[in-house]
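Researcher: Next sequence.
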Amino acid sequence: MPNHTDLLRMNERSLAQQAAVRKATFSPGEVKVLRPFSIWEISQFMFNVPADTLRKKLADDPSLPQGETLDDGRQRWFSLDEINELRRRLRFRGRSLLPTRPQGRAMRVAVSNFKGGVGKTVVAQHLAHAAALDGYRVLIIDFDPQATLTHSMGLTDVREWNTVWGVMCRDLCREADRIMAGYDNPDDCPFPAAEELPEDVQSIGAQRVQDFIQPTCWSTIDIIPSCANAAFVEFASAQYRALHKAWSFFGCVARYLDELPDDQYDIILFDCPPAIGYQSLNAAFAADILYVPSGPGYWEYDSTTSYLGQLGDAMADISEGFSAHAADAGITLPKDFADIRMLMTRFEATNPLHLAMMDAFRNVFGSNVCQHPIEMTRAVEQSGRFQMSVYEQDYRQMTRETWKRARQSFDRAYDEFRTTVLTAWPQVQGRQEAAE
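Model: Next structure:
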């Protein structure tokens, strides 16, 4: 009869296959490198100017990045850093190419649902890549122990103490000392100080705030990665709560992000696991906006309904149980969001069932439903299969129209996302200033 040793052997075989896939998907040495972008892409999809106009600007000023001419000898190709330098230095009819960035800290968006297969990681990945191509600086936090988003960003060797688990250990140590300091006589404190916590918690808790952030193959996207061993965080967190019952475990990530400089990032995206646990609750309490992807089937609608109810119940219980000490812990209860958005994924506009489910979502959730779903196309299918977003795929590897259709679907979804973020930003900034 199979037991745990069989599971471990299966895991070893799968890891070997996983490495082979990554070697074929990424560059040699398993180092993923972001492809360059053509003048056609930059002019049409990023700068929204005629390609000839951009070429003339480059010809008139040789100090601007000139890109690289590849084998075909006709098209110039530019790196993301070169594109961002063009953004900073070029203007078209007085129009700046820099993205709108209100004052205040970065906006935080959680992509969450506990139904697997609805495209949470694909949505988070594409929103991050689209925002980076739009000129924003992005931080991704991968809460999912499956670590698909981490792998897609080119990170393959991640230790569990560099994941959200490490952030939680660090927070537990800091909160333990803060709570202990609140007593005139430390002996009166019924909870342990940091030095009384397990040694592994103390060693991980000694890390600095920037130690958890890793660079990716995208120069303007960083990540707090995940790994398979990070699944242990759910068990560990329960143990830590038993050790320190006053620890507001759900506020770890929010407090951590509050330590980052306001201007380090513009947008912070959370890719959440398909469950309501310690990690997804941390994401919810840290987020300004909740994005809920759902597929076009009834079971996905049913699961999304359950997710909303269970998340709401969990947040209500926390608000009631921790309200007396939340302010001291840097948390505002009850938790509120600047916006909640429902995003349909894997949508086929010619499928009557999909159209009917979209109508059902809009009848129930009204204006919370995104107007632009993510359409199912061949390029979208390949993005999941090869761990590459549509933005990373080279249109020369397929028909340009197939690639363009997929890109435009995600661009429409991103444009709506950006409008949601920019609308909510002043509200979040005002609430932050009032709290200070």
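Model: The mean pLDDT is 88. The longest strand covers residues 289-294.
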